[in-house]
Amino acid sequence: MKNHFIRYLFLVAIFCFSICHLSFADEFQSLENGTEYNIDTLQEVGFSPRIGDIIKMRLKKFSSDGTMIFNTDDLGHPDGVEMTIGDNFMKGDIMEVFLKMKPGETATAYIPVWVADQNETEKNNDKRYKYIISLISFKTQEALHLEQELLLQKLKKEQKSLFDQISHRLYPEYKCTYQKDGLYILKKDTKTVKKRQKIKSKQSVSVHYILKLLPDYTELDNSYKRNSPYTFQVDNDEAIKGWDLALMQLKKGDHAILLIPSWLAYGFTGSGGDIPPNTPLYFEIEVEK
């Protein structure tokens, strides 16, 4: 009989805990500036991200009349997108809600329009945006740097092998005249022209180019078709790093092929939807005289 009584107390305790847990899950919490949020799916274990961490999340944003304004799934990453939690958000912003969550949790938040848009002139506007968010995972900056370093070592081996194959398959008149930091410069004419000096840092140049994505040689851009060369100042953060390094090894009037590794191009992030992360680039260029 004693064992039955103990079992009864245990079941009552579990029931009470469940009721309290559900009550808490259904209760909206308040933040500064009028934001209210509710963590719909609570996780018993785990830690919350901190400012500076990189979160992987999903987010849907709705206007006050229920119209969807934004959905991260539309970005082509249905498994979640990554972003860094900076320290420049306004109190009550959706970023503050993420700081309250653990991986695996979902939440609903109602945020005043002026807070979400960071526009204090709209303080008298009592409309709110509705957010439905999920925190999938997060990592610290230290963990990200270690992950990227390991990936970079792998990419360096793979892209060097690819560039070696390309340089050996090209027409015999092309020779590799420069190879450093993963960058390859291939030229037809390797003879020195005394009258022309190498392009210098901060010098202005105009360059015609054909851009292809490796390893498939998919043509992405062609300035000849537009009849519009790219004019810029070398080594002045106006072009990718691979171009700056390459142009300072060339002279006006040169034709060359540039094999640019991803870390000297658009790196771990890529460029919009056109250039995926960690993509090496193939350029045929002509530096105007």
User: What global shape is seen?
Assistant: elongated
- Provide the CATH topology of the largest domain: Chitinase A, domain 3
Mean pLDDT comes to 89
Per CATH, which architecture of the largest domain? Roll
- The biggest beta sheet, please? 7 strands, antiparallel
Compute the separation of the termini in Å.
100 Å
Order of helices and strands: HEEEEEHEHEHEEEEHEHEE
* Radius of gyration (Å): 28 Å
State the main characteristics:
alpha+beta; 289 residues; single chain; Chitinase A, domain 3; seven-stranded antiparallel β-sheet; elongated
Provide an overview of this structure:
With about 290 residues, this protein is an alpha+beta fold. The chain has two domains: about 1-140, Chitinase A, domain 3 (Roll), CATH 3.10.50.40; about 145-285, Chitinase A, domain 3 (Roll). The protein is about 25% helix and about 30% strand. The chain has six helices and 14 strands. The chain has helices at about 1-25, 95-100, 115, 140-170, 225, 240-245, and strands at about 30, 35-40, 55-60, 70, 80-85, 105-110, 130-140, 175-180, 185, 205-215, 220, 230-235, 255-260, 280-285. Strands 1, 2, 3, 4, 5, 6 and 7 form a seven-stranded antiparallel sheet that branches. Strands 8, 9, 10, 11, 12, 13 and 14 form a seven-stranded antiparallel sheet that branches.
